[in-house]
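Reminder to self: tokens first, then the designed residues, so the page reads top to bottom the way the pipeline ran.
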């Protein structure tokens, strides 16, 4: 018998390289940071007097300072509403920047820059900055509510000033938390 049968040799097929999940890329974290920072241009606060909207203030204005029209002279937080009858002319009052809003904005910008890097420590830092920016925004909320309640105690009972946080503020907090989560997942899945 002739053993010269030809054997077919099959080459082993190399395994297909595994495509990384979307969470292992920088797209979700970077997008979340961009959304959080763009939302800073939207109104964060709605200042109301006796249920009438006086001014809407965006996140950038909170971080850098803003002007509010107030009748007459006043030392109040949001304007001289209690002195309406004493002065008929309007005065622009400059309000200082809020340290929590400024911190959230600067930390968010740093987080965006870190989310673009492919270094594992930068991914960890981006995760931390996302969480810190969300904490700074929560600190902003506590600070504003404290200021309003202390100011309300000094004013007359006829004038009720309230500050409502808009959906944009809450969206920014959620976007920073999402950026922290996505950065953490990217760090975990990186090799």
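Designed residues (191 positions):
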């Amino acid at each position: 018998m002739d053993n010269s049968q030809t054997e077919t040799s099959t080459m082993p097929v190399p395994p297909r390289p595994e495509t990384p999940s979307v969470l292992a890329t920088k797209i979700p974290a970077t997008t979340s940071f961009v959304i959080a920072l763009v939302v800073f241009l939207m109104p964060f606060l709605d200042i109301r007097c006796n249920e009438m909207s006086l001014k809407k203030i965006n996140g950038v204005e909170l971080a850098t300072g803003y002007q509010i029209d107030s009748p007459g002279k006043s030392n109040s937080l949001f304007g001289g509403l209690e002195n309406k009858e004493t002065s008929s002319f309007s005065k622009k009052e400059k309000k200082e920047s809020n340290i929590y809003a400024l911190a959230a904005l600067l930390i968010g910008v740093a987080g965006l820059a870190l989310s673009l890097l492919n270094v594992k420590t930068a991914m960890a830092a981006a995760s931390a900055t996302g969480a810190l920016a969300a904490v700074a925004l929560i600190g902003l909320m506590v600070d504003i509510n404290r200021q309003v309640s202390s100011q309300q105690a000094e004013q007359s009972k006829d004038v009720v000033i309230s500050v409502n946080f808009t959906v944009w503020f809450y969206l920014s907090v959620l976007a920073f938390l999402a950026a922290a989560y996505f950065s953490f997942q990217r760090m975990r899945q990186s090799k």
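The chain has one domain: 24-189.
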